[in-house]
Amino acid sequence: MVARNSNIAKLPGGYLFPEINRRKKACQEKNPDAKIISLGVGNTTEPLMRHITEGLAKAAAGLGTGKGYSGYGDEQGFDALRGAIADKLYKGIVDPDEVLASDGAKCDIGRLQLLFGADASVAVQDPSYPVYVDGSVIIGASGAFDETTKQFDGIHYMPCLPENQFFPDLKALPRTDLIYFCSPNNPTGAVATRTQLKSLVDFALANRSIIIFDSAYSEYISDPELPRSIFEIEGARQCAIEVSSFSKPVGFTGLRLGWTVCPKELTFDDGSPVLKDWNRIMTTVFNGASNLVQRGGLAALDDLGLDEMQKTVSFYMENAAIIKQCLGDMGIELYGGTNAPYIWTRFPGQKSWDVFERILEEAFVVTTPGSGFGPAGEGFVRFSAFGHRDEVIEATKRLQKLKI
Amino acid sequence: MVARNSNIAKLPGGYLFPEINRRKKACQEKNPDAKIISLGVGNTTEPLMRHITEGLAKAAAGLGTGKGYSGYGDEQGFDALRGAIADKLYKGIVDPDEVLASDGAKCDIGRLQLLFGADASVAVQDPSYPVYVDGSVIIGASGAFDETTKQFDGIHYMPCLPENQFFPDLKALPRTDLIYFCSPNNPTGAVATRTQLKSLVDFALANRSIIIFDSAYSEYISDPELPRSIFEIEGARQCAIEVSSFSKPVGFTGLRLGWTVCPKELTFDDGSPVLKDWNRIMTTVFNGASNLVQRGGLAALDDLGLDEMQKTVSFYMENAAIIKQCLGDMGIELYGGTNAPYIWTRFPGQKSWDVFERILEEAFVVTTPGSGFGPAGEGFVRFSAFGHRDEVIEATKRLQKLKI
Questions:
Q1: Measured between alpha carbons, how far is A67 from A55 in angstroms, rounded to an integer?
Q2: pLDDT attached to residue A18
Q3: What is the pLDDT of residue B87?
Q4: Which of A219, B52, B209, B212 has the greatest count of CB atoms below 10 A from its CB?
């Protein structure tokens, strides 16, 4: 008989977000008349704006014509899209050949784990987006789950807390092959400064580590002093890969379009380029992002599209301000919500899932328990700024009545 | 420094299709006026038909409305799509819960390799679609590449040749955990009979192996006696997973939509359901097929869409008949091209790449060298029936003048 993959067997319970959904459904069944509002999963809610839907609709109609139809394209994406990403989002500091379009950041992280394999040692921010850890476990880069520490053996967790300004103490950090780093951060909403990122890059260069930099929320940065890409930092081309996405800035969560940037200078210890193997992975177990969605991405990157992107980001950041104001007025300890669409709240002495349950049961508002992002998230709860305005306002009214 | 993944280092040279593209480009540069025709990669060429493009365009416009917009959905796909696949394509012999929609069969095979991991032993048809072997190597399920045999150590190659009716000699086959099997076959065009598949299922049940059945070309079967799905065979629910796709029957190669069927009865040796772990993989390193493309898939599965699917398949099968007639008239030994869109031709005493080069250089027609699909493909060349009608006819005119 076929043995179960022992790496998958290491994963405890379910993935965070399906578990939240399960509890939400249970609450709805118990309270059939309740109008539950989700500030949980970071799921975009606002319709796409006109220029982008027109681009998509035009491309869809085009698929019915000889000129507009296309079958398999290059797995790395349209040259025009790769060029537009390099030009418009990176202002030319990366080369189009270094940009590989994809069906999203989560999927790219899974494929990067396949690229580096079971032998690559891993460090992650704690708390962090679940796929860094879960995917590393599945590929075999970890030991067993330790029920006491709530950590996987063999993975180094870098606590990111208010006490260290959500930036790891690099002096206390052992060398690892890979360092996952997300800024603006999901879930804490912390944005690394230029100085912080420079120290991270210097640390990676000194240790010959590779940073996997997740910039999926970079468009939410409005402060011009804060870096949007790791490649704004000197030395990053020798030690970093960037993962990013159209999901949050344009609302493509359901459409699926992301990209990675892998600089040509980045090499393995044998001197061979990482980009060459990354291309091999992308052409072997991937077949390109949808051509239709790539056309939508192109529409999002011309002048009208970039303007719509800015409007979408501004809308969600107004939500963030409303939520932040409400929680602040309630005297809750909070972080983030500026230059990032997440508000990270702390409930000293309480368990994340307990706070989650009380907010759900008493206010019918879904949040995300911080402990779901790692042990250092225990005692925190994340509020997402993605939501319809009327629902966000209604949620804050209900929250104000809570005693938490 | 970070070590290169030793599994990726085992892969020789490039992926087959990029190499063909490279040679095509080189030929075009040498002959700038030549109008090169591709009967190489199995890439669909005909515009989508009206009902499906209307479905896509409507969905695209809908994304701009509150009602039509959707963000992240279930990673497994829309319930409606999973239901329609189960109902329309499987006539209810599989359950919607067992159908997981995805961005395509190639990607699903990569994820299945992640599911089973490095310790699962593997058998493949020889010749076969490259991702079965290449992906197994990347996940670590093989030894080194043997330059003499052109095989990877630790992978069992099952020769499928005219001499055995393209069906492996199961008596000579050692037990493996996984058996990759593709019918209608890419590249040979062979379609397994009900009796053959029954013997394969019985073999898998006796050995407690799991068959990964690739039915991406099942809609090309017109003979009602031939099985379109492994689940038409008694016992398959205990020993098979099916991988399939909208690419070839509807022309979604560029749009990206496929699915897997993993029966609830399929278990690992510890009794745990394979479907549970498969769901974990799909929710952890995947984020769902594009919602827009799923809407297109739904349009393809209603009555008008199914009619368009049939017309698309018929068109390409008329191409197959034209190519087959031409090559037959030339006295070339050939197989397939009935119930499958590939014609598999044999050139005794010649090397596949030599024949490929001569057809390219002398007729400006791109084919696919059989040796690219595995050592048993040496001496064969594949002709694809995907192409515009005028180009297919022009290609046959040029081929007729060749002395091969």
A1: 16
A2: 80
A3: 98
A4: B52
pLDDT score at B18: 80
Q: Give the position of tokens 């602040």.
A: A328
Which H or E run contains A389? helix A389-400
Residue ranges, chain B, pLDDT below 50:
none
Q: What are phi and psi of A10, to 5 degrees?
A: -70, -25
Burial class (CB in 10 A: 0-12, 13-18, 19+), B50: exposed
Q: Tell me the backbone φ, ψ of residue B334, rounded to 5 degrees.
A: -140, 155
A397 in B contact zone (CB under 8 Å): no
Q: Band the pLDDT of A14: cuts 50, 70, 90.
A: low
Nearest-angstrom CA–CA distance, B116 and A3: 8
What b/e readout covers B278-287, taking b as 16+ CB neighbours within 10 angstroms? bbbbbbbbbb
Sheet strand arrangement including A122-126: A99-102, A258-261, A240-245, A210-214, A178-182, A122-126, A155-159
Rounded to an integer, the average pLDDT of A57-84 is 96
Going by the DSSP 8-state scheme, the letter that residue A394 receives in this structure is: H
**Distance of CA A195 to CAs A56, A241, B277, Å?**
40, 19, 42
Predicted local confidence at residue A19, as pLDDT: 86
Provide DSSP, B379-401: TEEEEE--S-HHHHHHHHHHHHT
- Contact, A258 vs A290, CB < 8 A? no
Substitution target in B11, B22, B58, B72 with the highest count of A β-carbons within 10 Å is: B72
Whether residues A268 and B3 touch (CB distance < 8 A) is answered with yes
CA distance A53 to chain B (A): 6
Give the pLDDT of residue B14.
Answer: 66
CA distance B28 to B20: 12
Check CB contact of B273 with chain A, cutoff 8 Å. Answer: no
Rounded to an integer, what distance in angstroms lies between the CA atom of residue A40 and that of residue A367?
A: 4
User: CA angle at residue B189 from B185 to B195, to 5 degrees?
Assistant: 65
Alpha-carbon distance A286 to nearest alpha carbon in chain B (angstroms): 5
Q: Is the ipTM of this complex over 0.90?
A: yes
Q: Where are the alpha helices (DSSP H) in B249-388?
A: 274-284, 291-300, 303-329, 352-363
Supply A258's token pair: 């992301």
Tell me which residue of A183, A235, A185, A190 sits closest to A209, measured CA to CA: A235
Minimum distance, in Å, between the CA of residue B307 and any CA atom of chain A = 16
B213 Cβ partners below 8 Å, 6+ apart?
A: B181, B182, B183, B229, B230, B236, B240, B241, B242, B243
Closest CA to B168 of B176, B160, B157: B160
Q: Residue A101 forms beta bridges with which residues?
A: A259
Tell me how far the alpha carbon of residue A252 is from its chain's centroid. 13
Tell me the pLDDT tens digit for each residue of A211-221: 999 999 999 99
Question: Does B144 contact chain A (CB < 8 Å)?
Answer: no
The reported pLDDT for the residue numbered A217 is 98
Q: What is the pLDDT of residues A320-358, one digit of tens each?
A: 999 999 999 999 999 999 999 999 999 999 999 999 999
Mean per-residue pLDDT, A60-76: 95
Question: What would the mean pLDDT of A167-192 be, rounded to a whole number?
Answer: 97
**Distance between CA atoms of residues A367 and A359, nearest Å:** 8
Contact list in B for residue A140 (CB cut-off 8 A) is 117-118
Point out which residues pair with A158 in neighbouring strands. A125
The pLDDT value recorded for residue A262 is: 98
Nearest beta carbon to residue B284 from set A47, A53, A131: A131
The tokens for B365 are 């027609």
Q: Is the pLDDT of residue A184 over 90?
A: yes
Find, among A229, A260, A211, the residue nearest to A107 by Cα: A260
